[in-house]
Design a protein that fits this description.
Helix content is 63%, strand content 0%. It contains five helices and no strands. The chain is rod-shaped, with a radius of gyration of 28 Å. The chain has helices at 3-6, 21-41, 44-64, 68-73, 79-100. Mean pLDDT is 78; it is low at 1-11. It is mainly α and 118 residues long. The longest helix has 22 residues, at 79-100.
Length: 118
C-alpha cells in the first residue's frame, strides 16, 4: 500500500498527522463556544456600565458631602452631585441594556446525522 492510501483519512490536513475531519470540527466547535463565552463575559456594555456606576457612586458621595467653601467656589452649583447622578444614570442605562438585550447564545452544533453533506 502506498503512503497516500494508508492516510487517506488525514490527507486534507497533511501538516497535522493524526487529525481527522471530525477532530478538526470538534476543535472548531469548542473554540467557537469558548469565544462566544468570552464575548459575553467581556461585553463592553458590562464594563462601561459597571465603571460608570462605581465612579458615579464615588462622585455622588463627594457631591453629597461637599463643604460650603467648595460650593461657593462653584457659584452654588453642586457639580459633583449632578455629575455623579448623571454617571449613575448612564451606568444603569448600559447595564439595563445588557440585561434587556443580551448577546445571542452560540448556535448548538447539529448532531452528525443532521449535518448537511459537503
Amino acid at each position: 500500500m502506498s503512503e497516500h492510501s494508508e492516510h487517506s483519512e488525514f490527507s486534507e490536513y497533511p501538516g497535522h498527522p493524526g487529525y481527522s475531519e471530525k477532530d478538526v470540527q470538534r476543535e472548531v466547535t469548542e473554540l467557537e463556544h469558548k469565544s462566544a463565552t468570552a464575548a459575553r463575559i467581556f461585553d463592553l456594555r458590562r464594563i462601561i456600565g459597571g465603571l460608570f456606576v462605581i465612579y458615579g457612586i464615588i462622585v455622588t458621595i463627594a457631591g453629597i458631602t461637599v463643604s460650603d467653601a467648595n460650593l461657593d467656589k462653584a457659584e452654588g452649583v453642586n457639580i459633583n452631585l449632578w455629575t455623579g447622578l448623571g454617571m449613575l444614570a448612564l451606568g444603569v442605562f448600559f447595564l439595563a441594556w445588557l440585561w434587556l438585550r443580551p448577546l445571542a447564545p452560540p448556535p448548538l452544533p447539529l448532531p452528525e446525522e443532521e449535518r448537511p453533506s459537503e
